[in-house]
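Lab notebook: predicted structure, single chain.

Context: the supervisor wants predicted structures on file for every construct in the current expression panel, including those that have not yet been purified. This is the next one on the list. No modifications to the sequence; it matches the entry in the shared construct table.
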Amino acid sequence: MADTKREIERKYEATDDTRLPDLTRAAGVDRAVPRGRTELDAVYWDTHDLRLAADSLTLRRRTGGADEGWHAKFPVAVGVRDEIHEPLSDAVPPPLAALLRSRVRHAELVPVVRLLSSRDVHHLLAADGTLLAEVSVDAVLAERLAGEGSGATAAWTEIEVELADDGDPAILDAVEKRLRKAGIRSAESSSKLARALAETNLNRDDTGTPKPTPYTAGDHVLAYVRKQIATIVRLDPAVRRDLPDSVHKMRVATRRLRSTFKTHRRILDREVTDPIGAELKWLAAELGLDRDQEVLEERLGSRVEALPATLTLGPVRGRLRVWSAARRTGSRRRIIDVLDGKRYLDLLDALDALSADPPLRPAAGRAPGKVLSKAVLKDDKKLARRMSHALEQPPGPGRDTAMHEARKAAKRARYAGEAARPALGKPAKRFAKRVKAVQSVLGDHQDSVVAREALRMLAIQSHAAGETAFTWGLLYGQEEAAAETRERELPGVWARAGAPGLRADLKR
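Prediction complete. Output recorded below exactly as produced.
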């Protein structure tokens, strides 16, 4: 298992004659202890077209220092990255290659930049000796190793302040205050690699080409589509690392994308998008195996924990754990197999191709107002039909099914409103917000339907094992009551979401 560290640091410009100020005057710092100089030799790897650098990812092989080996870094926020470490080896370690697969695909990883750093290290300590932060002054020599600009070099000096593990970020603010008073300013580049690429003119425009303002209906739809594609690719490593909520977020992105293809068939040619949509449906289903079970476990577990001991009869918690483990066996491995499979990589390639050469139809070139509002209102009409059908059904399985179908229509209408918001403004925002409220009620109702079936199976298993099924029956009744509550709430929530004024605003 690879070691993971949350790296929180700030970088500052320096020159060869820059001297650190007295950092013991920073709030909370008692001592600044010199730790000597370390020589670091780091080779950064990327594809020939610098796909990792384009997404602010780094992959390096470094010798020297206490943590020599392979490191992959993933941005979390400004100045915050997750660093994943693997032992030193000649080739890229397979675990790191897997984390980068959604970006690299079938391309080759090659050495692109070598950085030689002479690092002068100081530790900032609290009065009790606790390490607060590490401050280093790095003299860096960068060399391009391959591709255009091969052999070009650049040199600079920078100051790096890295927060200690579990340290208080306020220390970084205090240190920065002292550095600024000494005339030391923040670095323009977010990383050494970014600076090396910029200063050796490696076909990289660090000034940033401004994104064109969406003008046509097609511009707006493509902006939303590309955002979802980028989200899927970005979340791939997080899903592989089993980070919280990553599977759910990736699944939502696939659904948003597929829904957008359906909503905007007048803009994007369905002969191209329908096959991709089918593959997105497959991916969402694979991701859902683990996510749906997780949601169900949380729901049933909270129900059990809320019961008083007098009503928890039999080995209820143990039975629930065994049932959950049996249903989740292999689900984690299956997700990784899906992400490593050819079908998934082919889907990513197809999404890239669509983004690069979108199959636009004539309506894509029109002004966004009427085209997008018409698409949103069309999805809204479909939702209205399904809601009317659901509300007309008597209680029972027929109503449950009808409400589930209405829920799917509510999601699609909501996503249509979200995609149209940059063009239509507040009316689309209000529409999406109110439809989301409908979706929430319908979603909780469907969760209750699924929970009742699970409770019925648990009761059957308990009875077959000679255990009392009383508690499972009690929980089943609670879920029935929850579903009835949602059914009573639904007409009022739908009435608010279906306010005529919202539709009028969208038509303007």
